[in-house]
Amino acid sequence: MPCAREAARILVPARVEGAGVGVFLVEPSRVTITAQPSAISEPLSRIALDGVRVGADALLGGPSGTDGAAWDTLRRTAVAGAVAVSSGVIEGALDLTKEYVKTREQFERALAQFQAVTMQIGDVYIAKRALDVAVWAGVWRLAEDAPDTDEVLAIAAFNACEPVMQALYTCQHLHGGIGLDVTYPLHRYFAWGKHYGHLLGGPEDTLDALGAIVQAQEV
């Protein structure tokens, strides 16, 4: 969990006996927080809830908070935020890579003059634009509380986990060895993209989720 020690309250989803999933507001002092190694600059922690008890007033939304609405809002908002960050990550990596291939020379020619390089840059751009469209569609449907919100967000999540990650690998490849240098900005873009790809569940999980949504619509 990011920034757990700095948070005023921790949002904890939990299934309520005889009802749905509720979201509880838990004080950080009530849980055990252990620092978690991170490849990004964001402080991460592992949360342990052993023996934690809270009152009914900790339930987000009050007595009606067990209907799952708060959990749906939390989950959808988290997915929307994660794919939006991934969109910014691939945009930054693409801009950095474009400038690099314009100036890096091989055989007395800029890398950007080689057809294979321009085709690979084009693939990265397509992955970026596809995610952009999915992100904006997802946040629009979320704002409208549309019935297809989960479907559109699942599409955005898959694009962040698979095409965008492949595009980041391409950016690394086009940079050569310098792309692996931890002091070079591309390393940070790659680390953030990988982190949010894992947070979203990876390509297989997002495809499974999308498949389940489509199947439920057909029943």
Helical coverage, percent range: 55-70%
* CATH class wording of the largest domain: Mainly Alpha
Poorly predicted runs are: none
* Shape annotation: globular
Quaternary state of this entry equals single chain
Radius of gyration: 21 Å
| Structural class by sheet pairing and helices | mainly alpha
Superfamily at the CATH H level of the largest domain? Answer: Butyryl-CoA Dehydrogenase, subunit A, domain 3
Widest β-sheet, arrangement of strands: 1-2
**Strand residue percentage:** 5-15%
**CA distance, first residue to last residue:** 36 Å
Main sheet record: 2 strands, antiparallel
CATH architecture descriptor text of the largest domain: Up-down Bundle
Number of helices, where a helix is a run of at least 4 consecutive DSSP H or I residues? 6
Output the helix-strand order: EEEEHEEHHHHH
The number of domains? 2
What is the strand and helix layout of this fold?
Elements (H helix, E strand, L loop, with lengths): L9 E6 L5 E6 L5 E5 L7 E5 L20 H35 L1 E2 L2 E2 L4 H29 L5 H13 L1 H13 L9 H15 L2 H17 L1
Antiparallel strand pairs: 1-2, 3-4, 5-6
